[in-house]
Specification:
Blueprint: E1 7-11, H1 16-27, E2 31-36, H2 39-50, E3 56-60, H3 69-79, E4 85-88, H4 93-103, E5 108-111, H5 118-131, E6 136-139
Amino acid sequence: MLLRWKLGVVVGGGVGAGHEVCLRLGRSGASVLVVDADAAAAEATAAEVRRSRVSAWTLQADLATEPHDDQLVAGRARDLGGADLLVTTGLGARTALGLGRLLLDDPVLVPGPRDLDGSRTASAVLGLLRDAAADPVVLL
């Protein structure tokens, strides 16, 4: 999948591996919706992504504890023209795939690496996204 001009939704994008994934997506030319329970962390990540001269937005939501926040994320992604890919951190497979069904036409769950540091995880995730045919949901 060509990442340029795509919209990536990254749940848990404010810190750790999610933060690194956001930065790598931005460097690859993708716009990013940074979703995190910590609004300040999400905004800090989005500001860094914007330095790559791509658009980045934030949304404060906690999908791990608030079951209806998935509708909030889906609505915001629709407002931005629709998501092309989803990367989640800290969610179970069922929750991630459920969100993928709200965001993407035909979501395909792709397990990502869990035992790498943030930077190496982000590199591996971008490799998975580039190899994906369409509508990937990467679960970290």
